[in-house]
Amino acid sequence: MDPNGPVTIRTSKFITNRLLNRKQFVLNISHPTRANLSRSELGERLAQLYKTEAQRVVVFGLRAKFGGGSSQGFGLIYDDEESQKKFEPKYRLIRSGMATKVDKAGRKLRKERKNRSKKLRGTSKAKAGDAKKK
């Protein structure tokens, strides 16, 4: 596999979505000598192709065809950063580095704390949320 092999990017079903301030399309990528392409590399190439910033390009849903050599995915090009932050899902903003991930306790731990606090009343209820002491 040649890491610098030839790559052909084709876009189809190209739509200008004025409501969401973006262009959206299906990507068909041909990469016969490469295993796959990174999302960031695809973003840079699409930004060059459509004369926009690489940060405004969002590529997701990439699936390699069985047997290799080609992949298919979905792409969006936002008109501005404001509309991108407004309409993109949080996980994709985190993925692209435009938002930070909020760290919270695990699901089971949150449920256990909730159920411990149910058994208590008053000021001791707040203490039930804290971790158990050994």
Automatic annotation (TrEMBL):
GO CC annotation, single: ribonucleoprotein complex
UniProt-listed Pfam families: Ribosomal_S24e
Ranges of Basic residues composition bias in the record: 107-124
Entry GO MF terms: structural constituent of ribosome
Family: Belongs to the eukaryotic ribosomal protein eS24 family.
PANTHER family tied to this protein: 40S RIBOSOMAL PROTEIN S24
UniProt protein name: Ribosomal protein S24A
Native organism: Apiotrichum porosum
Gene name of this polypeptide: RPS24A
